[in-house]
Design a protein that fits this description.
Keywords: Membrane, Transmembrane, Transmembrane helix. By secondary structure, the protein is mainly beta. The chain has two helices and 16 strands. The protein has one domain: Porin, CATH 2.40.160. A hairpin with a 3-residue loop joins strand 11 and strand 12. The longest helix has 15 residues. The N terminus is likely disordered.
Length: 286
């Protein structure tokens, strides 16, 4: 987070309005798309990656406060209501553009025990530099390896990260493609999902800031529509809307912290009703 607006940011706000009109068709597609299976972890990835040589540690927490959904869990069916989900992540900046990382995901539902459910291997790569193109672009790949008793299908997930600053508003879009690479359902087609965020960023100052802290409000949207060639029916669809706050702490030169916290509201028959999420990240510079 920067302490003010630099010349590149000013130049970006003066780009022709046609850039804005290029954004809106994509926004309409993502916001009208509908979700299917309820999720445990919610994050909109933005263009920026970890600094070169930096290590990021993140702790993700999700709590399903209200839900009428059920799920399979190690051979039995359990309610999703009052379920906790935890994820532990480490990322390393190989360069100023390329980041690699690892996740360990765990679930703790009512009627079940706390269990490790899967590992994820990831890589993120930034294309170009900030404001070199009409949109800031990055690529994200993730390979998911579940515990066999939880899920017998390994998966590959690809995200295109599209970011655009329009005045003080930052827009981040994540169209997502997912393909099962093993298991009984390996012959299923490619599935499509999305994550999208709209934030009052104001060149890093957010809505409120001091020399050490900046607070940025926003709203995030998440959803899945099933296979690209055969989306699921409306009765099995839903989506999530999350008002969020991003709190950035940058006082110390050797490390910084970022807390993304929000409350999500599910819309549609397949969504949980109320979801609380928290992602706490510490980045250490070496």
């Amino acid at each position: 987070m920067s302490g003010g607006i630099d010349s590149s940011c000013i130049a970006s706000t003066q780009r022709p309005m046609r850039d804005a009109f290029r954004v809106w068709p994509a926004l309409i597609v993502f916001l009208l798309a509908a979700a299917t299976a309820p999720g445990q972890f919610f994050r909109v990835y933005e263009y920026k990656t970890a600094d070169a040589g930096a290590i990021e540690f993140s702790y993700w927490t999700t709590y399903i406060a209200s839900s009428d959904q059920e799920m399979g869990y190690f051979g039995k069916t359990v309610s999703r209501e009052k379920m906790w989900a935890h994820s532990f992540e480490v990322e390393y900046g190989l360069s100023h553009r390329l980041t690699v990382g690892y996740y360990a995901d765990c679930l703790d539902p009512q009627g079940g025990s706390f269990e490790y459910i899967r590992s994820k291997l990831l890589a993120r790569y930034r294309l170009f530099e900030k404001f070199e193109r009409p949109f800031d672009l990055a690529l994200y790949g993730e390979y998911i390896i579940p515990v066999k008793d939880y899920d017998n299908s390994e998966k590959f997930e690809f995200r295109l990260i599209v970011e655009k600053d329009l005045g003080p508003i930052r827009i981040a879009l994540n169209p997502i493609l997912e393909k099962k690479t093993s298991g009984e359902d390996v012959n299923e087609g490619v599935e499509f999902a999305y994550a999208a965020g709209f934030y009052y960023d104001d060149a890093g100052d957010g809505l409120w800031n001091t020399p050490d802290v900046a607070v940025r409000p926003g709203v995030e949207f998440y959803g899945e529509i099933g296979e690209v060639s055969a989306s699921k029916t409306s009765s099995r669809q839903g989506h999530y809307v999350f008002p969020v706050l991003d709190i950035y702490y940058t006082r110390h030169p050797g490390w910084k912290a970022h807390w993304n916290v929000g409350t999500g509201f599910g819309l549609g028959g397949a969504a949980d009703d109320v979801v609380l999420k928290s992602i706490l990240t510490f980045e250490f510079l070496f």
